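In keeping with the milestone schedule agreed at the kick-off meeting, the structural modelling team has produced records for the first pair of proteins. Each record is given below as a sequence line and a structure-token line. The laboratory manager (R.T.) confirmed that both were archived under the project's standard naming scheme.
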Amino acid sequence: MSEDFYDVLGVSRDASEDEINRAYRKKAAEYHPDVSDEPDAEEKFKKVKKAKEVLTDDEKRQMYDQLGHERFEQAEKRGGVGGGAGGAGGRRQGNPFGGMGGQGSPFDDIFNQFFGGGQGQGRQRNRPRQGQNLRTQVTLDLEEVYRGVEKQFTITRPEECSECNGRGHPRDADVQTCPECNGQGQTTTVRDTPLGRVQQTQTCPRCEGSGETYTETCSVCGGDGVTREEATLTVDIPAGIRDGQTLRMEGEGAPGENGGPNGDLLIDVAVREHDDFERDGDHLYHRHAISFPRAVFGGTVEVPTVEGTTDLDVPSGTQSGEEFRIRGEGMPHLRGRGHGDLYVQVQVVTPESLNDEQREALEAFAEAGGEDVDVNEGFFEKIKNSF
């Protein structure tokens, strides 16, 4: 039994789209084949991606919740899931049971079972259609995001067969009338159903609606017209991009059909966690340890930035946990000017071991704090110098 999509992402059934996206980014970073050593990481990554695609699509999620996991997958295999130009979820496909506004309905599954999604598909089969969009992921360091980077990566994608130019058969192959549909491009079957005898007309599976077959098929693509090839691409990552955002490379997806344009390549961006900084929007947060005397007497400390260091003035009497802002040392604004800020939270460190002079100074400080005594400037200078 397949695993429920909500369980795959580890979210509740009433989770918001933001919660689903956050869960997806966490799981994707854990299971992506480029970063995970688990033997089944690729399969888990595919499940996570599929779960996210369904649960962030309002129409598909509604149908998923109505049908349940198993029936949803069965309907999807029959092409009965999804709206838009290629889906069977709305009235545009001639489905009288389609939901209002293109929303899916449980009757779609029954309608497809009886009528094969409508006869209009067969008549439009030879129209040019855009190829499918493909998806991949690129993982970046915070430093790369700060500067912007040109990233090269390799994907395996469908390509038009170079041997037959996408025809699926040699150029000199003889054409013949399809014996399955007798050149009609459609086949008709009659079957008994609970609603009576139903006649179903669908696109011929052998000639795919053309009414013709060929005496030979291409030896390279096996008649499909496409092969799976490796492609090395380069994408410019803009400075300031955030974890979970998606870049689009137009025309780098799967090839179109019947002269249609290629689909696009969607690149999901993942940003690795950093040892020194946490990111919130374009602001960065850093915890910095300072000594007890520095907190008492104040002074200047050197704190890290993404590309180096900068000075931070710590006032005297600073308490552990206080936060200071350094303007302009955060992340760059995406496709804009300027930077966010760097917020530094200081943590006062208690010394684990003391020499005799340090211990004597602190004991004197403790005694002075507990009695009404005259603590002059020279007294504090002695404590400061002992550390």
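The second protein of the pair:
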Amino acid sequence: MLAIDVEKLQKSFRVQKNREGLGGALKDLLRREYTEVEAVKQISFQIPQGEICGYIGENGAGKSTTIKMLTGILVPTSGKVEVGGYVPFKEREKFVKNIGVVFGQRSQLWWDIGVIESFHLLRKVYRVPENDFRKRLDELVERLQLGELLNRPVRKLSLGQRMRCELVASLLHNPAILFLDEPTIGLDILVKTEIRDFLMGLNKEYGTTILLTTHDLQDIEALCSRVIMLDDGSIIYDGSLEKLKSNWSKGREIQFQFAHPVKKEQMDSWTEGLNVQWRPENDLTAKMWLPHSVNVSEALSRVVGAAEIRDIKIFETNTDEIVREIYQSEKVSS
């Protein structure tokens, strides 16, 4: 079953053109000129129920516009969009009961009242029965350790505390689909890890579908099996994170620390016939670069069988570097 079904989805905005100078400003007062800007350009994708999918792109790529159409905030210019079997902008009342939304830079909690009061107000908005609400709230509060925060006004919470409360607020009605727009922005590494662990557990236990937009690619690596990459309103990659890495990573490096001095000629002889390159750092330390076509186990076994090794470290090309290279190249092979 599909949680999200998007076909040739497009969103254009009519933007006023501002002419230069005082004369231009006067002309704008009398007769305004407009131009059409395509924020999202006929994109198509499907997300099955229970998948965690990363939706990534640079600023202005069209991520937030897409999320707003998927959550019913914006009406598409053209194309088809169904979320949980509903058309978001047409069937709002039924639709919102099936989704949860967290915008990292916007709050759905009331600023000056206690957190628990916001939760009670949201219960009424979503028409959650009292018994179901209590059971769900107790479970979420325990998982995210919010007990001591419930009576504090939202304005007195730290950013990390507020984000944990935002997650609870979005899940009180037990939605099948969760939209997260920059949920870990500005958070320290400990809070990020707690939120990632919580989301992974939520997906495994309840089968909650999660669509995650983020600039922190460590969120993607920790949570997502699939990545959709957007550039200038168009999808340039849709597939697994592993395939993205294998297609675009330049390879990996292995650093060896030897027990005794080793010359480069010896290193080359150990890996003869393999397409690897050695780069000595000093008499006792050297790095071996391997393309993805080379079997790591074979390369390691050759070196370990020929020399006494004190330490080994493996360095993978990280996802940030891969994504940066893709955008700089302006094309991607799916």
